[in-house]
Amino acid sequence: MNLIYTDRSVCIMAENLPKEERQSQIMEAAMKVITRKGFSNARIDDIVNEAGLSKGAIYHHYEGKKDLFLALIDHWETQTFPDFYSRNGKERSASDTLRDFSEEIIKVFKTRSYVFQVEVEFWSLANQDDEIRKRSQELYEKIINLFELVIIKGIREKEFMDVDTRITAIYILSVFQGINWFCIFDDKKINAVNYIQKSIELIIKGLKIS
Fold it and tell me: 154: which of 37, 122, 142, 159 fits an S-S bond (Cβ 3.0–4.6 Å)?
């Protein structure tokens, strides 16, 4: 009886959270479940149990599993690539802003590596579903544009060479996405932190005006 009462109390407390916190709780639970089971095998009941919410609370915010997954793509962006350019772009050099991105990636990897593992599921489902492909493409376009702003700032302030900003932004994104390798495989020769830090320093070195 105590166990049932405790679970019920946790559920009631969770459902009394502000709307944004409840939605974030659902998104985090969904990422964990989808990482473990994959989108096809994940059930709403699994997400309910992981989130500590009732099924009604889930359906209050999302029509079903696909609607929840589409919302997850937007949540993933804000959790993984914060907009450092707008936040402190005037005070920080372009190089240091890129380092800020790398440190954020490292922090998320250390505390919530499932965030990167679920990205692999985005790629898989984008090949099967036009709506998910479109939403994923919009997500990556925002991230590429964000990196482009940083590179343009570096060029404008004579810190970086005049390069093709879009190609460079895509390259930076692909380097960060390499973190997925370390989420799936146990690389004995190099760790994820060294990979990210050394990769971003190589990029900065290549961009800097001699």
Answer: 159
